[in-house]
Amino acid sequence: MAGASNVPGILMKSNKQARGTPLAGLAVKVTDGFFLVGLSNVDADRARNVQLLKERSLFDVPLVYANQRRAIIAIEKGAPANARSTTRSRSGATSAFRGAFRWLINAQSCRSPPRRPC
Predict the structure, then answer these.
(1) Residue 36: CB atoms within 10 Å
(2) Which is deepest, 19, 48, 85, 88, by most CB within 10 Å?
(3) Is 77 helix (H, G, I), strand (E, B) or coil?
(4) For each of the chain's 118 residues, which pLDDT tens digit applies?
(5) Which residues are CB-neighbours of 117 under 8 A, at least 6 positions away?
């Protein structure tokens, strides 16, 4: 199985059929299979990125595999929450994130396989 060799960037879309608009930034390969996408901090780029992130509901993340085949990861934003529920859900989301990736954190610190405590 060929791993991802490139992530060209992130596209924002208003609907599934629309052509994506790229966010201004740069994607870099950190190591095999891991990529980091940084958004531009230039004033005009930042304003445009913020506008796209607020107004568009879909993210497309294109991938290029080592065998040159291509794929797209499509992500749809959820409905906005009111300020009160957002505050409550932040700690829950952080907790869920930590729980989902606890095995990775443990594996990095003690090299144990997932679901087996150190």
Answers:
(1) 10
(2) 48
(3) coil
(4) 568 889 999 999 998 999 999 999 999 988 888 888 999 999 999 999 999 999 999 999 999 998 999 999 999 887 665 544 444 444 544 555 555 445 444 444 444 444 444 4
(5) 106
User: How wide is the angle at C-alpha 56 spanned by C-alphas 53 and 62, nearest 5°?
Assistant: 80
Q: Where are the domains of the chain?
A: 4-79, 81-118
- Residue showing tokens 């190591």: 31
Q: How far is CA 19 from the centre of its chain?
A: 19
pTM of the full predicted structure? 0.63
Q: Is the dihedral of CA 60, 61, 62, 67 positive or negative?
A: negative
3-state secondary structure of 18: coil
